[in-house]
Amino acid sequence: MPDRLMSTYARQPLEIVRGLGSRVWDADGRSYLDFLGGIAVNGVGHCHPTVVEAIRAQAGELLHCSNLYHSSTGSRLAGELVARGVGERVFLCNSGAEANEGAFKLVRKHFHRLGQTRRVRLVAMQGSFHGRTLATLAATDRPDFRAGFGPMPEGFTFVPFDDVQALAEVLDETVAAVVIEPIQGEGGIRVPPPDFLSQVRRLCNGTGCLLVADEVQTGMGRTGSFLASHDADVVTLAKGLGGGLPIGALGARGPAAEALQPGDHGSTFGGNPLCCAAALATLKVLSEEGLLQNATDMGKLLMDELRRAIPSAQVRGRGLMVGIELPFEGGPVVTLARQSGLLLNVTARKVVRLLPPLNVSEEEVLTAARIVGEVVEAARAGAATPVASPSG
Predict the structure, then answer these.
(1) CATH value of 49-288 in 3.40.630.30, 3.40.640.10, 3.40.50.2000, 3.40.50.300
(2) CATH code of the domain made up of 16-34+290-380
(3) What is the tens place of the pLDDT at every residue in 98-137?
(4) Per the residue annotation, which of 109, 156, 226, 239 is the catalytic one?
(5) Active site residue 3
(6) Which residues share a beta bridge with 354?
(7) Which of 142, 135, 68 is CA-nearest to residue 102?
C-alpha cells in the first residue's frame, strides 16, 4: 500500500515499533542503541515507567478541556518551570516552533505596550535554527530551509554567532530582542566561548532590548544544567519537556511577563492535560534520578572516548549534546552506524550529532563510542559494508 504521508522527510529504511530506555526495536525485532532520542525528545529514555504511568493515569481522567477553563496540570507545570528558572510566567503550547513564534510576538507586544513602537527588529545568529513556520524561518539562517517559501516576514537581522562586536554594531533603538541558541544544534553543535552569553546579556542591558534564549534543544538538562543560559528575559522550551509527548513552553520574566493579555495569543491544544502530566513526570524523573549530573558525567565520558577513537575529528559539545565534525560528508556514517546497531544523525552536512537519553549508562556510552569510531573509519575508507557489532 502506498504511503499517503506527505514527503516532508527523507526517512531511513527503518520502522521503529518499540522503545525502552536507550534502545529501540525495529519491525524485524532488531535492537538499536538510540543516540538521537527523537532529536533530543526522549531525554529520560523511551517509555520511562514514571512517565508512562502518569500518562495512563491522566488519560483516565481528562484528555482535553480547552484553555477557556482552568486545568491543574497546566498550572502545576508552569509553577515547576518557574521554579527552575523559566521566567515568572509561562505560556504552554505544542512545539518549539510555536514557542518561538510566541516569543517573537511577546517581545514586540511588550515594546508596543511601552509605547516604543519602533522596537520591532529581532537580531538572530548566523547558523541559527528556530523552526519551520514562516516567522521562525525568518529567524533561521538557512537558505535551503527558506527556498520556495518567500517572501519572509520582515524585521530580522543576522550577525555571526560568536562575534560580540558585530552584535554591538547592529543594536539600536529599533531592536526588540536578540534571539539566540546557547548552543547551536542544527547549526552543527556550535558551542560559543564561555563568556559569550554574558556579553550578549550586557549588550542587551545597555541598549534596552530583550534577550530571548531558544532552549528548545539545549533545555531540560541536555547540557548538564536544566537551562544552558542564564538571565534571559524570555526562554523557550520543547523537545525533551514532555518525555516523548508534544509540548512546548514560553517563559518570560519582568515586565515582559505581562506583555500578552487575553486575546493576544492562544493555542487550542497548548497546556493539554495529558501532555502536561507527562511533562510533570519528566521533571520528577530529572530531579529524583540525578540526570543532570549523569548528563555531565556521561557527556564527558562520551566526548573523551570519541576523541580517543577519532583523533582526526573535532569533537565538541556540552553534557549529552555532542557533535563530531568530520572532514567529509557525514551521510555514510549515519548509514553504517544504523547497520551496526546505533542511531544518530548528521547536521550541517559534516557534523555527526549524538543526543542520547540523559539516563544513558556507561556501558551504552562506551559501546556507542566504539561503533562511531569504527564506522567513521569505514566511511573514510569508503567501505561499502558495515562493521560487525553485537545488538542487545
Answers:
(1) 3.40.640.10
(2) 3.90.1150.10
(3) 999 999 999 999 999 999 999 999 999 999 999 999 999 9
(4) 239
(5) no
(6) 322
(7) 135
